[in-house]
Amino acid sequence: MHHQQLKPAEAASLPRHLLEAHVVALVRRCCPGLLALRAAHARLIRLRLPRLTAAFALSKLLASSSSSSCGAAPSYARNLFDQIPEPTAFCYNSLIRALSSAAGVAPAADTVLVYRRMLRAGSPLPNSFTLAFALKACSVVPALGEGRQLHSQAFRRGLEPSPYVQTGLLNLYAKCEEVALARTVFDGMVGDKNLAAWSAMIGGYSRVGMVNEALGLFREMQAADVNPDEVTMVSVISACAKAGALDLGRWVHAFIDRKGITVDLELSTALIDMYAKCGLIERAKGVFDAMAERDTKAWSAMIVGLAIHGLVEVALKLFSRMLELKVRPNNVTFIGVLSACAHSGLVNEGRRYWSTMQELGIKPSMENYGCMVDLFCRSSLLDEAYSFVTGMAIPPNSVIWRTLLVASKNSNRFDIVQSASKKLLELEPCNPENYVLLSNLYASNSQWDRVSYMRKKMKENNVNVVAGCSSIEINGYLHKFVVSDDSHPEIKEIRLLLREIADRVVRAGHKPWTAAVLHDVGEEEKEVALCEHSERHGSWLPALTGNATTMSIVGVYSTARQIFR
Prior knowledge:
Pfam families: E_motif, Eplus_motif, PPR, PPR_2. The protein is mainly alpha-helical.
């Protein structure tokens, strides 16, 4: 019977199986769309269905509301669930799935609460789908603590070997940047690994900048005859961008073209970001111009890329064009706009864009606040910077206090230095970077007693400085060098080469700039220390090997200083 002709009196006389078939047809016809789903719900209420059929109808509505295409609010799904007298495992799974589609920390916590409610009820028991949906909710935030609780439940209930649970765990740990745990799950997966598993693990490596591992796994994936998709390639391209590995990025882009992989919005945006971060801003612009359609993320990536290359006028013109086309900017867009102003000393323009952001109803992120602080500090407006920081709507993080501290030190504003250093150590008493920064600050002024005090505080708080690390890409492979580490096979030869060069330039009249060595040691020890910098080791590797067909210094960073240049 057609659902539009069914009346309450007719529904009462229909057999149960025909009524349920009618319910299924009605719910299917209304999806996707929350309004249509609510209309179907209202119609089913008017039919005054028998108790069992009503519960069946509610379960079908609940399942439809949990679909990502429906767009229903989790509160509606919960309302449906609460009306079901004896919810089945299917109902619990549908509710958890609906919660997993919502953004924010609360859904992850709510998911665990629903899971615990299911356990307390005693029946039905959670199955592999229950845990898979719950783990997805924890991956969205991501919420590592709640995810670990679910992992423990999977182990206790013998559900850990399920491919659905394993994929959920892998996604969780990869998105939480717990790559060691993610790799353990990945290696322990039963049977052939699917595309989702490979992509999640590659994405996990990409997030933490482990480019060699990400690309190595990508090659393993090809050897296993698993064809990558756009999601996989976004992770691989992002890994190249984080490491600044231009040649690898070019190779991956060529691979995408060769394999005919669809270059969608997200992949195009990743390519823009990669080329911009690797120094080829014109290539990034080429990708951007070739896009048939552009979303906010694509515009933002291009604006940020132009800003970091110092093309301030072009970046701001592109932002104006974005607004003309009625594309709504977001926080990331304004990071590019405000950083462009900061690097060009455009204080008034920066203030104006800050006002524009608030007029558009965009809530400033910590990064947006940081850009404004950087703008004021670069323009030596330290009083305004300090006033801005102390008046922030959210508590300033350590990066903002650190920016203010360095600028104040350079301008001899030791009143602000004192306040900023105090806040910094209060926020992160166990972060070695803060102690290194303050020690270097005191050492540059030959305040060795304060340097000793910082070392004492580090010892008291059990803080250890992580050695700096530098990388160089040669012929498509990343070589890493760590301060005071002998693990690289050519390190001895590099040191000999550097010492020989240092001796030659000294004999030619060069005087080493030992002031850069912020240690209370003799001049000779300082000269030796200059040769031990990991960046120098990386820079001179090509001269030693002599077989570099392509070479670029990439990802030169110090984990002790948290600087990525």
